[in-house]
Amino acid sequence: MTELKTARLLLKHLDDRDKYRLVELLSVYEVAQNLTRVPHPYTLSDAEDWLARVKENPFNLSIFLNDKLIGGVSLRDRQDSSYELGYWVGADYWGQGFATEAVGGLLNFAYLQIRPLVVVANVYKENVVSSKVLRKLGFTATGEGEVFSLPRQVWVPTFTYRYKA
Ligand SMILES: CC(C)(COP(=O)(O)OP(=O)(O)OC[C@H]1O[C@@H](n2cnc3c(N)ncnc32)[C@H](O)[C@@H]1OP(=O)(O)O)[C@@H](O)C(=O)NCCC(=O)NCCS
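Output (structure tokens, whole complex):
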């Protein structure tokens, strides 16, 4: 079981008992609307499906602050020598550097095992804060596209960011 410490956070796999808290955090539309594959409304059954999937991926971790679940961060193997980054932080915890700290921690951890480490992220163009997080961590914009947003049920224009270490 992966457990990863950063300055303030613990990154680890989600546990079955965290599923109610996951529903509480991801049910907030302001969080879900900027994600691609998180349905809205978010149900206990969605949380259970997610729990079953995260255990198979060593780079799919949840973010804990003082033993409390506050978010998630993951790298998904795209099977083309690159990984897709996803992350979110519960709305009550925004603006305190937690996303930057968690993503930075996961990138450092992944780099210990994967070299070169190539990571891509697709960010909704309107999501200025998320683009800022990526740029702070050394990602550069490489293009644009669009993705189908499950919570919004529409196609949304995106910037593609890339990171190489
Ligand atoms: C995007 C998200 C992960 C950011 O989490 P966070 O913990 O608040 O991010 P951080 O605090 O690490 O960094 C946010 C940065 O944006 C800045 N920021 C905040 N509001 C801003 C605004 N309206 N305009 C510009 N910058 C802003 C912050 O000041 C900070 O930069 P700084 O450290 O240079 O001051 C969080 O808002 C979230 O989960 N949103 C919903 C899901 C999502 O968008 N996920 C990413 C999908 S690509």
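The first strand starts at residue 3 and ends at 5.
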